[in-house]
TrEMBL record:
Protein name in the entry: Helix-turn-helix protein
Region (Disordered) location: 1-29
Gene Ontology CC entries for this record: cytosol
N-terminal signal peptide: none
InterPro entries in alphabetical order: Cro/C1-type_HTH, Lambda_DNA-bd_dom_sf, RmlC-like_jellyroll, RmlC_Cupin_sf, TransReg_Diox_bact_type
Compositionally biased residues, Basic and acidic residues: 20-29
Organism of this sequence: Salipiger aestuarii
SUPFAM superfamilies for the chain: lambda repressor-like DNA-binding domains, RmlC-like cupins
Length: 212
């Protein structure tokens, strides 16, 4: 996922473990999640028959950073995970669901992963799963924040955005949409997109993603 106030760019440096909800699990649980995620990333690359160099070229993440991620020496930022998901053609929450312990109908708030990157926070309220077509993400943008995506992780990915509070401008195919609480924006995404908040107010919104 892209950094706040800038377009997407890889971050090969070591990063802290992802933030969790206020009632977060013990650090040991986060460490186990990082280990499982590293194993899954290595399995995905091997399953695609890709070398580290090939994945680095496809994702824009350095070979050295990829190697450290697969060895669980560092925890990936949301930006790096987003780039890897684009290279593998899957959403981030679907990747995270692949390292969880099977399908759970009731997803408690304490068990919902929260990732923070710059002025952008996303909570995976209903993770993607092979048994389901949709996933639900709660997003928060701080005031004066801009995030830009070069492309969706899956071509023609269906989006349903529901504004909960604040102000948000979403630009799709060069067309800007100014959103206020209660507004909805629905679209299929095949190109780039930009999300921006004004200097005086942030935004909170729900995003439903439906895999084709």
């Amino acid at each position: 996922m892209p950094d706040a106030k800038s377009d997407a760019s890889p971050d090969p440096s070591p990063a802290p473990l992802p933030d969790r909800a206020p009632d977060r699990a013990p650090d040991r649980s986060l460490a186990r999640l990082t280990d499982r995620l590293s194993d899954r990333l290595a399995q995905l690359r091997a399953g695609r028959g890709m070398t580290l160099d090939q994945l680095a070229q496809a994702s824009g993440v350095s070979r050295a950073a990829l190697s450290r991620l697969e060895k669980a020496e560092v925890s990936p930022t949301a930006d790096v995970l987003g780039r890897l998901c684009t290279a593998y053609g899957m959403t981030m929450s679907r990747l995270l669901a692949m390292v969880e312990d099977g399908f759970t109908p009731h997803v408690r708030k304490a068990d919902q992963p929260v990732w923070t990157d710059g002025g952008f926070q996303r909570r995976v309220a209903s993770p993607g799963n092979a048994a389901l077509a949709a996933e639900v993400i709660e997003c928060r943008l701080e005031p004066d924040t801009r995030i830009a995506y070069d492309a969706p992780p899956v071509p023609d990915l269906e989006h349903h955005l529901m504004m909960q509070s604040g102000r948000l401008t979403v630009t799709l195919d060069g067309v800007a949409h100014s959103l206020r609480p209660g507004d909805a924006l629905r679209y299929r995404l095949s190109g780039g997109s930009v999300f921006e908040t004004p200097t005086e107010k942030g935004a909170k919104y729900l995003l439903v993603l439906v895999t084709p």
